[in-house]
Amino acid sequence: MTALKLTVVSAGLSVPSSTRLLADRLAEAVRRQPADDGRQVEVQVVELRDLAADIAHNTVTGFPSAALAKAIDAVTGADGLIAVTPVFSGSYSGLFKSFFDVIGAADDGALAGKPVLVAATGGTARHSLVLEHAMRPLFAYLRSVVIPTAVYAAADDWGGSGDPLTDTLPTRIARAAGELAELMHGRQPRPAAGGPEQVVPFEQQLAALRPETRKE
User: Fold this and answer.
1) Pairing mode, strands 4-10 and 80-88
2) What are φ and ψ of residue 201, in 5° steps?
3) Are the beta carbons of 24 and 67 closer than 8 angstroms?
4) What is the pTM of this model?
5) Which percentage of the chain shows pLDDT scores above 70?
6) β-strand pairing of 80-88 with 91-92
7) In terms of Cα–Cα distance, which of 80, 111, 77, 112 is closest to 182?
8) In whole angstroms, what is the distance from residue 58 CA to residue 80 CA?
9) Which of 165, 139, 184, 151 is nearest to 30 (CA)?
10) What are 42-68's pLDDT values in tens digits?
11) Per-residue H/E/C for the chain
């Protein structure tokens, strides 16, 4: 049976890179998710650091190099995507944004409907909202399906403080990986704890606000 394709985009600039470390941990967590249909997950990593000049050239010429075209094919042809960026000036890096600008400029529907896990790294937890104010809107604009759990790792997350209320990076990675794997395998999302939410008809809610009406 054909394996599912998972592509990981890492925008880390340094070597070694905490962004690449987080990307690898997320990919491994997705790869280990059980599959009902027996299909395995093949992981391919795209390091934007190695494509920086190619992305800049494509931005001004409109034509990708062979290496950049291969990376774009890996992203657009994947069954699922993990996108990880370091935080610069309170948002995603310019290299990260430029890469997805190149994809969107070539085909604005290239990522439509694709399951995406967004993640970011930064020196302090104060930048964690980058996931919701920058990354989630970017992929929503590209019409991707962004999973509910986004993962942010600050410098303190890697060492661990011993506090069970704050040492939650492994928990967030596992939850996000499970959500992405569910979509990649085409399974229905698991129901929330306590069963499906009960919908109260509007007329019933309105009547509850006007007890005098019910007496008549």
Assistant:
1) parallel
2) -55, 145
3) no
4) 0.82
5) 83
6) antiparallel
7) 80
8) 24
9) 184
10) 999 999 999 999 999 999 999 999 999
11) CCCEEEEEEECCCCCCCHHHHHHHHHHHHHHCCCCCCCCCEEEEEEEHHHHHHHHHHHHHHCCCCHHHHHHHHHHHCCCEEEEEEEEECCEECHHHHHHHHHHHHHCCCCCCCCEEEEEEEECCHHHCCHHHHHHHHHHHHCCCEECCCCEEEEHHHHHCCCCCCCCCHHHHHHHHHHHHHHHHCCCCCCCCCCCCCCCCCHHHHHHHHCHHHHHC
Structure tokens that stand for 180 in this block = 């992405």
74: Cβ contacts below 8 Å, ≥ 6 apart: 5, 7, 44, 46
Q: Which two tokens stand for residue 54?
A: 């190619």
Residues 48 and 11 sit within 8 Å (Cβ to Cβ): yes
Rounded to 5 degrees, what are φ and ψ at 54?
Answer: -65, -40
Nearest partner of 81 among 118, 126, 124, 36, judged by Cα: 118
Kindly state the average pLDDT of the residues 194-208: 62
Section 149-173 average pLDDT:
78
Contacts of 109 (CB under 8 A, 6+ apart): 143
| 16: preceding bond cis by omega (within 30 degrees) | yes
